[in-house]
Amino acid sequence: MGILLWLVAVALVIYGIITLINGSVLLGIVLIVVGLAVGPGGWSIFNRRGSRA
Predict the structure, then answer these.
(1) Where are the alpha helices (DSSP H) in the chain?
(2) Nearest-angstrom CA–CA distance, 3 and 10
């Protein structure tokens, strides 16, 4: 599951950067933030605060 989340996060961030270069700033920023939120490391929306092992 962690590898799948990592791949999705990388794809979203890369697509966000490409979107920024093409001129759609808001959509690019949103894609990058969503990519950071989905990623398994660091800040993730799938990690709960109390479930640190």
Answers:
(1) 2-22, 25-38
(2) 11
